[in-house]
Structures are given as C-alpha cells and as structure tokens.
Design a protein that fits this description.
Radius of gyration: 19 Å
Number of strands: 4
Bound molecules: zinc ion
Helix content: 25-40%
Shape: globular
C-alpha cells in the first residue's frame, strides 16, 4: 500500500440524474423499512469514466495490495461499504480501485476502533485509506511479509494489524510479493557487484509509484 492522490473534478457519471434518482429510491426503501440490496445500486458507480480515473490515479494498481489490475478486472470498491453507508455509494471520495481479491476480501467489512461510534463524527476506521492516510506510517515489511511498523501507538498498531490481516497477508499475494522480492535482490546484487549505473536504475525502478508492491521495497524493517 502506498499513499495515493485523487484527482478532481470527480468523474461526470457520479453526478448524473440516474445516481440521484437511485439514491432517492434507496432512501425511500430505507424509510419504509425495506431491505436495500446491492442490486438497488445497479452499476452506476462503476461506469467507465470512474474506473478510468481511479486506475489513472492508482497507476493501474490495486489501491490496497498494489497488484497490477488488468483492464477487465478493474473493480470499484467502496472504502465505506455501500451496504452500511448508503449515502456514500456515489461519492467520489469514497471510491477506490481494487483488484478482485481485495474487493472480495474486504466485502462488507468495515471494522471500527469503537463500534458504538459508527456513523458519528468520532468514527475511527481500522482499515487504512491510502487516499487520506500514508500507509508507510503504519505498515512495514520483512522481505515479502507485511508487519506493523515498529513503535506504533495503540490505535495505529490496531489499524496496521487489521489492514494487514484483511488485505495484505493472503498466500497468493505473499507468493507474488516473494517473487518480486527475488527479482529485486537479484538486481541489487548485480548493482553491488558491478557498480554499474544501469543496474542502479533497475534497482530504483522497484520503488516507483507505478511498480507493483512499491510499498514493500520502500518500507523494509
Ligand atoms: Zn488488491
């Protein structure tokens, strides 16, 4: 996970009449005590302009795990799940581009430090939002394994642990990070043995924003 910056203005389709009408229908259902389901939102939050702008802002990587996302697997995740926070379903600031696995693993989960504060101004999420917080302040790596950064306060540590458990420590992902770590150590060794600037360039590529798992290469502990 690395710090991301969202570009503005928000994609036009999010302020369409269709979105407004859909939200109005959802409010009515809620007011009548009816169950609101995923189907009620349709696919309005995932129009092409939204997907494209998210992928541009994220260098075509998942905002959570930093795996490269193929064009056909671009998922639009709601940082605060729409199943709990209906009003945020079409809010640009709540949308995050995610891979299939992170979108699935996160699902409807949105743990808080204090559940009794949900939907209040004091709500403190335990999943790090890479658009509003710098993940490098929380998460470090031992080679390919994600760990909470040393010296964190209680809340920061809890956020790191929850984010890692939910999004950064599945076996497939660790296997891919391990492979990438091996490429990195090979490039680093080549540089150390030759002192050649072209190998240095290779080593530095791993830490760039557009590189898969850049956070791992930047934050070894
Ligand atoms: Zn992911």
């Amino acid at each position: 996970m690395i710090k991301l910056n969202k570009t503005y203005p928000a994609p036009a389709s999010l302020s369409s009449k269709e979105c407004e009408d859909t939200l109005e229908q959802i409010r009515k259902k809620e007011a009548n005590g009816e169950t609101v389901t995923t189907k009620d939102y349709g696919t309005l939050y995932g129009k092409e302009d939204v997907r494209k702008q998210l992928m541009d802002d994220q260098n075509n990587k998942c905002a959570y795990c930093e795996s490269t996302i193929l064009h056909e697997s671009r998922h639009v995740d709601h940082y605060r799940p729409k199943s709990i926070y209906h009003e945020l379903a079409f809010k640009w600031d709540n949308l995050v581009g995610a891979c299939w696995a992170c979108n699935k693993d996160k699902g409807k989960q949105f743990p808080l430090d204090d559940e009794s504060k949900r939907n209040t101004i004091e709500e403190t999420p335990l999943i790090i939002n890479p658009y509003t917080e710098d993940p490098s302040e929380y998460i470090a790596f031992h080679e390919e394994i994600a760990v909470p950064k040393k010296g964190l306060q209680r809340l920061q540590k809890r956020k790191a642990e929850t984010t890692i458990k939910l999004l950064l420590e599945n076996k497939d992902l660790e296997k891919r990070r391990k492979e990438m770590w091996q490429y990195y150590t090979t490039a680093k060794l080549a540089y150390e043995l030759t002192n050649s600037p072209c190998f240095l360039d290779d080593v530095q590529q791993f830490t760039k924003d557009n590189h898969q798992y850049a956070g791992m290469f930047r934050n070894q502990q």
